[in-house]
Records
---
Amino acid sequence: MLKLGIFGDQSSNVELMRHLKAMPEANIAGVYFSGNATVPNDFKELFSPAELMEQSDAILILSEKSISSDLIRLILRKSKHIYLRTIPNLSVREIKELIDLEKEAGIVNFIYNPFDFIPHFDPFLNKYEKPLLLNLRTCFEGLTIKPASEMLLLVTAINRMIQSNYKKTDVFGLSDSGEQVVVSVRIEYENSSVVNLTISKEKTSGYCEIFSKTGRTKFEFNTPLYISYPHLNQEYTAIENFIRIIRQKEKQANSFDNLLNGNRIVNEISEHLRFNEIPF
C-alpha cells in the first residue's frame, strides 16, 4: 500500500486530512507541520521533513502557502512522488532544474489546479484532435487569488489540454482611470493550436468555444471561470488522481513542463503590462 506523508501548517485542511486517512488506496505514514502549527491528535506526528520523507513513498504538500524550490528539490532528490496544493512561486531557471530532477528520479509530481476540473479542459475526457482554436472570455476572481496567479493556473490548465509547447504570444492591455483592467492575449503553439484569452477585472459573464477538426464545443458561465465549476471534493479527487497516476506509472502525465510554459507566458504578459504601466 502506498505510504503518504503530509507536509502542512496552520493553513492545511484538517477535514481533508481525515478523509485521506480513510482512503483505501493508501495510508498516512505521518504528518509534519511547519512553524507553530499543531498536528491533530489522531495523526502520527513527525518532527522533520527528513523523517517524513524517510517514512513515505509520496509527499502531499497541503499548505496553502507557496513552498521553496529547495524543499521541492530535496523531495525529488529523495525520489519521492510529490503533490503540491499551491502552485509554487518559481523562476524559469528553478523550474528547469526541477524538470531535470523529476526526469532523473523517475517520479510523478502533481500540482492542484481548480481549472483542471472544468470538464471541457480535460484532455483525457475530451479527445480533441489537434490543432485547436480556443476563444475564452472571463473575469478575474479577484478576492482569494491574485490576478497573476490566477492567470498562471489558467494558462497551465490550457497548456495541459493543448499538449504542446507555446511558440509566441501577443499581448494587449487596457486600463482606465477607475483601474478597470482588460487583458487580451493570443498564444500560438508548436502544434499550430491558437488560444485567444480576454480577461477583465470587471465582473461579467463569460464564454468559451473550442474548435477542432471534429467540431465545435461552446459553454457559457455567469461567474468568474475560476469558481464556475465547483466540485465538493476537488482536492480529494485530485489526490486520488495523483495516486492513480503513480500506480499506473503514467510518469509523463503530470510534470513541471506545463508549469514552465505557463510561467514563460505569464512573464511575457506581466512584462508587457508593466511596460505600459498597467497593474497586474
---
Amino acid sequence: MILPDRAAPVLVADRFPDERVALLGMLRSLSPAEWSASTVCAGWSVKDVALHLLAGDLGKLARGRDGFAAPPGTVPLPSPTDFASLVKFLDALNARRVRELRWLSTPVLVDLLAATGPALHAYLAGLDPFEPGERVSWAGEAPAPNWLDVAREFTERWVHQQQIREAVGRTGPVEPHLLHPVLATFARALPRALRDADAVAGSAVLLHVTGPAGGQWYAVREQAAWVLHEHPPSPPAATVVLDQDTAWRRFTNGIDADAARERATLTGDAALADQVLQAVAIIG
C-alpha cells in the first residue's frame, strides 16, 4: 500500500534545473577560504557538503535509474529496520562517502555537479509521479509515491545549498517557486510526528506557514492513522503558525523545538500543537 496522502501532490521535477543553476553559480564564485568554511553540518566544510550533494546524485542515478545494487562489502552497515538504526546507518554511510571523495579538486567537483544535475533531472522527470517509489522514512513506513520521493530529493538539494550559502554569507534562493514545494514536502512529516497523539477520529491539526512561500496543511486523524489533507472535515483542534524561515529550519533541525516555539503562535490543544513542533523531515 502506498503511503496515504490526501493533500495536493508536490510535483517538482521541473524545479531541479533552477536549483542546480543557482548552486553552480554560487560554487563557482567561492574563494579557497570559503570552500574550507565550516557549515552547520557538524564536522563538514562547504566542500564536504558539496561532495555530499555529488554523492547523492551519483547514488540516486546508480540505484534508481540504473537499478544497480552495491556489491557486498561496499556498504558499512547492514540495512536497518528501525528508525534509530536507520539514522545511525545513513550518518555513517554519508560520512564515509564524503571522506572517500575529498581527494577531488573543487573545479572537478563543480564540473561533476554540472554533469550529474541534468542526468538526475532527466531521470526524475521521466518517472510516473503516482507509481510507488522509495520509502520516505520521515513521512511513514509505507512506500511513498514517486512524487514524494522526488520532492524529498529536491528538499535535500535545496537545504544543503542553503547551508553552504549561510556558511559563506550568500543569500537565496528562497523564491516561492522553490521554497513553497520544500515546505509542502516537509508538511508530509506531520502525520508521523502525530502518530502517538491522543485524538479522536476526525480531529484536525493545522500548520499555517506565513510568508510568500507559505501555505496551510492539515493533519487529520483517520481511523488507522493521521493523514495529510488539503481541507479538514472539522475546525482544527490545534493550530501552529510559523514564518517560512522558522518552518524550514525547524523541519531540518536547524533550530530546536523550544526555539521554534518562541517564534510560533500556538492555539487550541497544547499537546497536539507541541507535537507539530517535533516534526522533522530529515534523517540524522
---
Amino acid sequence: MNFVTFHTDSDPTPRLGAVVDGAIVTLPGDMVALCSRGAAGFVAAAKEAAAAPATARIPLDAARLLPVVPRPGKIICLGLNYADHAAEGGNQRPDYPSFFLRGASSLVAHGAAIQRPRVSSHLDFEAELAVVIGRTSRHLSEADALEAVAGYTCFNDATLRDYQRRTAQWTIGKNFDATGALGPWLVPASDLPPGAAGLKIESRLNGTVMQSSNTARMLFPVAETLCLLTEAVTLEPGDVIVMGTPAGVGYARKPPVWMKAGDTIEIEIEGIGVLSNPVENEAQP
C-alpha cells in the first residue's frame, strides 16, 4: 500500500493518507511520524486503511497531493551518480559522491506545475530515485544502513543549467522555487527490492522517452550513500536523499532540450509509479 500527503479544496490542512483502490483513506498523524514507526507502522496503517468503510474514501481526483514529505528537515542530493550521465557532461567517474542540498521551498507536488522562472529558459529535467529516512541515524554500516530507510518515491531534480554553471557550487541552479517535484506517493521499503536496486527509471517529455536506465547502475547505491553521509551528518525521520540521474538530460543533447510552458514531464520508476508535472512560466508581477 502506498501513502500520500494531501489536502482538499474544502480543507487546506495537510493530511496523511493511504491509497486504496484509487481512493485515499485519511490516517492520523503525518508522513514523518509514519516513517518513524518503521515497517510495523506501515503494516498497521495499511490494515487500518483497508478496514475503512467506502464512505471514508476520498477519490484521488478530489484530493490535491502535496510533496510526500512537505517540508523535509534535509534534502540531500547526489550529482554524477550514474557513469553515463557523468560522461555526457564531460566529467570523470567520481571517487566520492558530489553532495549538494535543496531547500524545502523548491519542492512541488505531483500534478502541480514546475515553474520556468522569469530569469532563465534553461530548465532541464532529471529523473531520480528519492529515499525517505525513517530512523535517526549516525555512523551507519553496510549491514544496517537500509534499516534507516522508510520508503522510496520519485524525484525530478529540475535544474536551471545556466545558474548551475555560474559558480563551482550547484546550489543556486538547483533551488529555484517549484522545481523539485517529489511524489506521487511513498512506497514502503519492504515493498521494493533492498536499496530499490534493479528498478527501471525513465523520464518522458511530452510522451517522448528522454532518459531510460536502471537503478542498478548507480555508482553509489543507497546503502553505501547512507554510510558515507552518516560519517558526517545525522539523518532524521523525514529527511530525503535524492540519488542522482542517468544520461539523457536536456543540456547534453544537440541542440539542447529545455522544458517550456505547456510541456508535461513524467518520471517513472518501476514499482513506484509515475510523477507527472506540467510546466508553466513564473507569473509576472
